[in-house]
Amino acid sequence: METNNGLTSRLDVHLKMQPGSTAAEIKLAPGQDFTAEAGAMIAMSPSITMTTTTHKKNSGGIMKGIKRMISGESFFLNHYNGGATGGSVWLGATHAGDMFVHQLNGDALIVQGGSYVASNSDIDIDLSWQGFKNLVSKESLFWLKVRGNGTVIVNSFGAIYPIHIDGEHIVDTGHIVAFEESLNFYLTKAGKSWVSSILGGEGLVCKFKGKGTVWVQSHNSSSFGSILGSKLKPR
């Protein structure tokens, strides 16, 4: 697959130090570029150039930046170009955990806020409204919708693994990292009754329906934050 300028839309990504503290090395050909979340860069070759906008490269869009902030991402995006000789860019993530690389072919991926790392510059990153069902589940109302042709890099809190669904599957709300747009979901109780669901510590879960893939993380950032917060001394 090639873009209009003849460069491949598939990024050359190498994941290192998996799964606990994964970093992504992206090798750029001369003139090739990609977009990443602001603050994700660990290191880069001196031949690489970086520019910053609120949306796509050479395109501002203040509303796009505001929408990403609502979903839990940063207002700005950084755009890296390989220059005349090419080079490498190393990216990290906020959460200690794994990453996965996904190839889009005109379709969309729904990604939880804070998990987007990088993608081809032509891929569109927008807000995805997941409805009031997420408010009831204490998760974010807004996620990211990443659509286009090219590579997307997503990170998780802890290890990450895909669940391929053809029919129905139940996933805890706090462990969802991303899912294909072909899947629908609704909230339901984890146990046979509300009492067993609440006493069992699970409460509400997501029941996915359709055919597609959901990526799940081994740790729940909300639960971890609640435990850690209670142990921190007030300043």
Descriptive report:
The chain has 235 residues and is mainly beta. It has two domains: 12-158, Double-stranded beta-helix (4-Layer Sandwich), CATH 3.60.160; 163-231, no CATH class. It is 13% helix and 47% strand. It has four helices and 15 strands. The protein has helices at residues 62-71, 133-136, 194-199, 221-231; strands at residues 12-16, 23-28, 33-37, 41-44, 49-53, 77-81, 87-91, 99-111, 116-119, 124-129, 142-155, 160-172, 176-180, 184-189, 204-217. The strands form two sheets. Strands 3, 5, 6, 8, 9, 10, 11, 12, 13, 14 and 15 form an eleven-stranded antiparallel sheet that branches. A four-stranded antiparallel sheet has the order 1-2-7-4, with no helix packed on it. Strand 1 and strand 2 form a beta hairpin. The longest helix is centred in the C-terminal third of the chain and has 11 residues, at 221-231. The N and C termini lie far apart (54 Å). Residues 1-7, 67-73 and 131-140 have low confidence and may be disordered.
